[in-house]
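[job 4471] stage=fold_predict status=RUNNING
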Amino acid sequence: MFSGIVEEAAKVVAIERDGGNVHLSLTCSFVNELKIDQSVAHNGVCLTVVSLNDDNYTVTAIQETLDRSNLGGLKVGDLVNLERSMLMNGRLDGHIVQGHVDCTAVCESVEEVDGSHYYKFVYEVDPAMASKGYVTVEKGSVTVNGVSLTVCNSERNSFRVAIIPYTFEHTNFKNIIAGTRVNIEFDIIGKYLSRLIEFQNK
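[job 4471] inference complete, writing structure tokens
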């Protein structure tokens, strides 16, 4: 379980393909605090630490993860948003994030306004999935590349988010431009509500 509050943008130092799997090695400031089998969100995708070295660690993404997220397009040198699993004795500063990416979206535009940045993202809408809560709602929560954000201008297949300077500088949002593909996790509360309504209507 995560909160969508990114700790750091880590750098990819090595990529190894093994059949349908991809082993990603990254470096960050808290490598020495990680443990084997620990869960860490990478651009919002929950992955398990499988090996550790002095200055980097490795996680493995299976084919299902690669198909559903933007991790398969990473290159050495790319920045990846990291968040370790949430502590249950602290404040929930973002929102409830599972680390299970639902789909990818494409950045359509970036607009700078008074020091902050507005990003518009578009995604393909599957009507069956939309009826199960895989949508955004105005002023609701959404996770973009692991970052907990508030939705504005929610449309049928698009939405905008506002990024403050701190988030811009400390995540990989500073590298997102028109055409960049990002990971999206819709709000779990909306999914549960949609499911309950579906059962009540049967």
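[job 4471] summary: The two ends are 31 Å apart (CA to CA).
[job 4471] exit 0
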